[in-house]
Write a structure and sequence with these properties.
InterPro entries: Lipocalin-like. By secondary structure, the chain is mainly β. Helix content is about 10%, strand content about 50%.
Length: about 130
């Protein structure tokens, strides 16, 4: 019986994303892409980015905006905002994006206070680093 319980616990731990609803608050703030991996295994490293992504999520709903940091500490942005809803489904965390022009989904692979990894519908993985401004 102990072996069965242990097997079930290990199976559950391996199958889950490890991201819990309380972790989503870690998404709030400024994120910069530092690497992209395409399904073939090819990787692109980003040493310098002209923009950062700003996320603001509360109660599994919020938005993402693209911002361009300025030398004086301010940001330039346009009025385009991607509305986001977060869904926990089948041991996955799905980010549903919607604008006036399109809607799409990304799977959140991992989230810590320092790194975010998401995968889009074309299986392209985006690796973000949290920025402090």
């Amino acid at each position: 019986m102990k072996k069965i319980v242990l097997f079930l616990l290990v199976s559950l731990a391996v199958s889950c994303s490890g991201i819990e609803p309380k972790d989503i608050e870690l998404l709030n703030g400024y994120w910069e892409i530092h690497k992209v991996e395409i399904p073939s295994g090819e990787k692109k490293e980003y040493k310098v980015n002209e923009s950062v992504d700003y996320f603001e999520i509360a109660d599994l709903k919020g938005f993402r905006k693209k911002l361009v940091p300025q030398m004086d500490g301010t940001f330039l942005t346009n009025e385009v905002q991607e509305n986001i809803t977060v869904e926990f489904k089948d041991d996955k965390v799905i980010l549903h994006y919607k604008t006036n022009y399109a809607s799409w989904d990304e799977e959140m692979i991992s989230l810590t206070d320092k790194e975010l990894v998401v995968k889009n519908q074309q299986d392209i993985k985006y690796f973000y680093t949290k920025k402090q401004f």
